[in-house]
Amino acid sequence: MQKVDSFYPNCFYHIYNRGNNRENIFIETANYRYFLDLVTKYICPIAEIFAYCLLKNHFHFLVRLKTFEVLKTSKVYSQAFSNLFNSYAKAINKRYNRTGSLFQTRFGRKQVKSDGYLVYLIHYIHFNPQKHGLVKDFRHYAHSSYRSILSVWPTRVEREQVIELFGDRTGFRNFHEENDDFSVIQNLVEEN
Predict the structure, then answer these.
(1) Contact between residue 46 and residue 77 where contact means Cβ atoms under 8 Å apart
(2) pTM
(3) DSSP at 21
(4) pLDDT tens across 118-128, in order?
């Protein structure tokens, strides 16, 4: 398998970052939509989205990188993520008359190497708003892929592939409702 800028084509990655000094990166509702529009522009051409959650001061994505016949540059993947984050930061700085870094560091990424980790990570990503006290029930949080996966509406998320990982829609729901112990993957996820 060809390695490309510490990314491997056709592999899953947990992508995450948070605001500089833990400050909010999403100030108002329109920011969440704008960020997802930028994800469509910059990330969907190079990756499939399996789960996401946008919180006030951080975000999580689970993506599988696409394979290209010919890569024009070895940095195609990291450049796409860089373009996303730079574009969003510039827009937020301009919109809210702020200066400086919006994000704390370069984005984090961890390769997902097992189906067990993959399934728990999807749930971990969806559970984040409840974990951080933003909502009492993560299933009602507006800025994650949980509801998109269960809906019939068009989505950027690879709905059918995600559902298949859990067996079916009932399996997806049941796994999310019955599992709140993330010790299985705790050493593999970053605390935000």
Answers:
(1) yes
(2) 0.89
(3) G
(4) 999 999 999 99
Helix or strand holding residue 15 (H, E): strand 12-18
Within 8 A by CB and 6+ apart from 12, the residues are 50, 62, 63, 64, 111, 112, 118
**Per-residue pLDDT for 18 more than 90?**
yes
- Tracing tokens 């975000």 back to the chain, one arrives at 59
Tokens at residue 124, please? 């971990």
CATH level 2 (architecture), domain 12-188 = 2-Layer Sandwich (3.30)
Q: What are phi and psi of 175, to 5 degrees?
A: -60, -45
Compute the distance between CA of residue 21 and CA of residue 29 in angstroms, rounded to an integer: 21
Structural domain boundaries of the chain?
12-188
Q: What does pLDDT average to over the chain?
A: 88
